[in-house]
Amino acid sequence: MTTRAAAGRSTRVRPLCQLTGTVVVAAVTMTLVAGNAAAYWTSDSTTGAGGAAATTVNQGATPTASGVGNTVTVNWAASTLANGTAVANYLVTRYDVATQTPQLVCTVTGTTCTDSAAPAGQWVYSVTPRAGTNWLGLESEKSNQVTSDLVAPTNAVTLAVVAGNASLSGGTIFYRGLAAGSFRLRNAMTDAGSGPASSTTTPLTGGPTWTHNASSVSTPTGGPYLSDPFTWPAATTSSPTETISGRDVAGNVSSLPLTFVDDSIAPTGGTLSYAAGYQPVPSVQISFTSGTDTGSGIAGRQLQRSAAATSVGVCPVIGSYSAFADVGPLDPASPYVDDQVTTDTCYVYRYVITDLVGNQYIATNTNVAIVSYAGAVSTTVGALSLWRFGESATDLISADKFTAPTGTELSAHTTDTSWTRWAADLNIAVITAQGRVRQNAALTGAASYYTSATPTSPDYSVEADITVKSVLALDDVGIEGRLQLGSGLSGTFYLAQYHLGALGVAQWQLLRYVNGTPSLLTTAVAQSSAVGQTYRLQLDMAGSTIRMFVNGVVVATVSDPSPITPAGRAGIRLGSTAVIVGQSDTTGLQLDNFQLNLSTYPRAADSLSTNTADYKNGVSLGTTGALTGRTDTAARFDGLNDYAQAAGTTGLPVGASARSVELWFTTTSSSKQMLFDYG
User: CATH class for domain 157-262?
Assistant: First the structure.
C-alpha cells in the first residue's frame, strides 16, 4: 500500500508473506522524510482492504495580547491540520521580553487565553496548535508586547496660575480670595509600568462661588495633563473640595483629594533696625527678624532701600527719596551688611515679607542712615571742628596776586584785574620782585588806586595781605571801600590801614574820609611790629556796620551814624601823604593778595562747632570730581596764595597743646606744597 507523508513523498511496502483467508498480517517498514511538519496517521482504506494515510498540523496563528492590570488576554485565529481537520487544542506560552524565558500559561481548546496572574513586567505570547496528545504544529510568531502593571501611577500636581494668587501645599490649595483669580491643575504624573494615560478632575464640592468643569485629559501622550480652569471672584472665602485622579495605561488609578483655603492675611512679626545718622564705615548694617505666616507660608523675604543724595551733609525730606529697590539676595541672613553704597548719600531701608499667595508684610524704620566720610569724621571721638569746603561756587568780584615784572607801575598791570591811579595822592605803586605792591620811593606822598571792578551792592568786603619788610617811620598801607571820587585831591571812602607812627609804634586804624577829610571811627588798635610778619587785613561793610578784621579776628566794629551809602569802588592806599619813607623791595610795608567780594560770598562752615573759616584770595568753590563717587563739591586752591583761614577760634588747642589735623586732598602738582598750618 501506499502512504502519504507530510512531505508529499511515497514509501513502498513489500509483503513478507501471504496467507489464504480473510486475515492478512503485514509487517511494514516506513521512513519519514525529515522536515518541520508533523505526520498524523488516519485510515483511508476501503472495506475489505487495510490502509493508512499521514497529514500535518499547520503552524499556529500569530496572537494578539491586551492587558488590564496584571490580567492579559491573548486571542488568535484557529489552526487546522493540512487536510482541514481542526486541531485538538492549543498551548499558549508567555515570554519575558528581556530574558526570553518561556512559561506555559494556557492549554485551551478555544482561541482565547486569559493570563490572570501575569507578573509585573513586559511580555509577549505564542500559540502552538496540538493534534491528539503529542502531535504539535509549529509555534506561532510572538504577539505584540504587553505590560503587566499592578502599581498605580504617582500624581505630581502643581498649579498653573492664570490670574490672581494661589499655591499648592500637599493636599491644600491656598488662594488669595481678596482678589479674583484662576488656575489650572497640572498633573505631571509618573508611572514606571505601563505609563501615564490620563488625568481626571471632579466637580467641586462646597464652593458656591467657584466655577469649574470636570475634565478628563489624555493629551499630550504621556502628559503632563492640564485640567480645565478653577475660577473664583473677588471676596471669596469658601473652602470647596476637589479630587484629581491619574490613570495609567494598565488602568491603575491614583487619586489626590484637595481642599481649597482662602489666605488673605499677611505674614506677621517682622522687625527691622539699623543705626541712624552717619555710619562709621562706608556701609550700613541692618538687622531684622523673619516673621511668620500661618497660611500658605513664606515665599520670600527681601531687603529694600530708598536713597537720596545729601546736600552739604544734610538729607532731604523722605518724600524726595528714590523708589524702594531690592538690595542683597532673597532671604538674607541677619544682620546684613549693605556695602554697595555711595558716599554722601542718605538711605532708608524696609524689609518685605511675602507669603506664597502674594500677601505682604513690610517692616519699616524711620531711621535715616547717612554714608559720608565727613559724617564718619564728625562722629570721631574728640573731634573739635570740621570744614567740608562744600560751599556753592561764587565768583569773587575782583582778586589780584600782583604777578608782573619787577618795577611795573600798578596801572600798567592787568594780569588779574586792572587798576586806576587817582589824584588824591601824588605817588605811584610798583610791583616788587616778590610779587607784592609797594609805594615808589622816588616820589613824595602816598599812592592810591582803585580796581576796575564795580560791586553790585554796598555790602561787601575788601581784604589784602600786609607784609612788614622793615619798620619805617610814618609808613602806612591800607585798603579802601565805598570809594566816591571827588574833584582834585578829595574823595569819600572808608579806610582800614596799618599805620606806623613817628616812633615806629604800630596801629590798626579804621577811618572815614569825607571829601578828603579823615576821621577815626574808633580808637586805634595797637599792634606790635614784627619784621617779616604778614597780616591779613579785611574791611567789611554791611549797611552802617563797618568792621575791621586782622587775621580773621574782628579788631574794630563801628555803627556809623552817617554812613557812606553808595557802593562806589574798592582800592588800596600805600605810604604816607607827607613823608618820603624810602621804601624798596626789601623795606617798608607791602601789600599782596587783594580780594573784593560781596558779603554774600560764602564762608567755610564748621560742621562741628562755630569756628567758621574764610576763603582767601580767590579759592574756587563748587569744584566737582575731587573724589571719585562723591556728589558733594570741593574747594580748589591755586597753589600760590589761596587758603582758607579760621581765626579767633573757640575750643581749639592753642600754643604747645597736643593736636592732630587731617584732610583729604588731590593735587595736579608734584612740587612741595603747604597743606595746613597752625598758629
Answer: mainly beta
**% of the chain at pLDDT higher than 90:** 58
Residue 660 identity (one-letter amino acid): S
Q: What is the mean pLDDT of residues 96-121?
A: 94
Work out the average pLDDT over 637-652: 82
Q: Rounded distance, CA 440 to CA 427, Å?
A: 7
Show Cβ contacts of residue 440 under 8 Å, excluding neighbours closer than 6 positions: 427, 428, 429, 430, 447, 583
Q: Residue 355 and residue 79: Cα distance in Å, rounded? A: 70
Q: For residue 288, what are the β-bridge partners?
A: 272
Burial class (CB in 10 A: 0-12, 13-18, 19+), 397: buried
User: Looking at the domain covering 398-598, what would its CATH class be?
Assistant: mainly beta
Q: pLDDT value at position 371?
A: 92
Judged on CB neighbours under 10 Å (0-12, 13-18, 19+), 405 is exposed
CB 659 within 8 A of CB 653: yes
- Does pTM surpass 0.85? no
Domain coordinates in residue numbering, the chain: 1-56, 64-148, 157-262, 271-378, 398-598
For residue 325 the three cell numbers come to 529697590
- CATH fold of 64-148 reads Immunoglobulin-like (2.60.40)
**Burial class for 583, CB neighbours closer than 10 Å (0-12, 13-18, 19+):** buried
Lookup result for grid cell 509600568: 193
3-state secondary structure 135-185: EECCCCCCCCCEEECCCCCECCEEEEEEECCEEEECCEEEECCCCCEEEEE
pLDDT band at 660 (very low <50, low <70, confident <90, very high): confident
CB distance 590 to 410 below 8 Å? no
Nearest of 637, 627, 667 to residue 372 by alpha carbon? 627
Q: How far apart are CA 429 and CA 441, in angstroms?
A: 9
Q: Identical fold at 271-378 and 398-598?
A: no
Calculate the CA dihedral of residues 328, 334, 335, 338 and round it to 10 degrees.
0
**What is the model's pLDDT at position 487?**
58
Under a CB-based contact definition with an 8 Å cutoff, are residues 409 and 429 in contact? yes
Average pLDDT, the chain: 86
The CATH code of domain 271-378 reads 2.60.40
Rg (CA), the chain: 57
In the chain, % helix, strand, coil (3-state, to 5) comes to: 0, 45, 55
Strand, helix or coil for residue 6: coil
> 512 pLDDT band (50/70/90 cuts)?
very high
CA 167 to chain centroid = 28
User: Quick one: pLDDT at residue 220?
Assistant: 97
If one counts every other C-beta atom within 10 angstroms of the C-beta of residue 130, the result is 20
